[in-house]
Amino acid sequence: MPYCYFKRGTYESTCILLEFYTATITDSYKYLGHIINSCLTDDLDIQKQTRSLYARANMLKRRFSATSLHTKCTLFNAYCTPMYGCQLWNIAYRYNYDRLCVAYNDAFRLLLDVPRWTSASSLFVLHRVPTFAAVIRKFTYTLHDCIRNSSNSLLIAYVESDLFYHSKLFHKWRKLLYTHMD
Predict the structure, then answer these.
(1) In this structure, are residues 49 and 60 in contact, taking their beta carbons and an 8 Å threshold?
(2) N or C: which end of the chain has fewer CB within 10 A?
(3) CA distances (Å), 54 to each of 92, 96, 155, in order?
């Protein structure tokens, strides 16, 4: 089993042995499809999601260009809206997040075969497909709701404590769900 050791700043030539296994020192590590890095930000994961979104959009365009408009919208919802772990992203650089939003808009335009200068907002409304901000809010609300209504005793204790209401994650969710409109 691989182990990951992060140290801020410069790396020391330290050897870590765990049960006769030498742990490798690395800047980032992929765990359950999510990239964990030494800065504890999710920018690498967002960049991976951006590349993946373009790849999925091109695959849909190539394979399903002759299908009906309704089918294309359904395929877009199925293949391009799932963004694993987006509710928990800790964003250090806003431009990575903005590039993912642009990729989402471009993917929909590509699939519908409309020019890039066409308004993505009007396309989303016209075809009843959620915008990027709506997708992020939906996933965030779903996780927030699951945590608040969980029957797990640890989660109940956490949600009822002040730790939850003073956490950065709660403030981010509150801003995203109730005050922030993209």
Answers:
(1) no
(2) N
(3) 22, 14, 36
3-state SS, residue 42 = coil
Nearest to 125 by CA among 100, 141, 105: 105
Q: Are 112 and 72 in contact (CB under 8 A)?
A: yes
Express each pLDDT in 31-84 by its tens digit: 888 888 888 888 888 999 999 999 999 999 999 999 999 999 999 999 999 888
N residues, the chain: 182
CA distance 56 to 68: 18
Contact assessment for residue 41 and residue 91, using Cβ atoms and an 8 Å cutoff: yes
The residues, ordered by sequence, that sit 6+ positions from 2 with a Cβ below 8 Å of its Cβ are 23, 24, 29
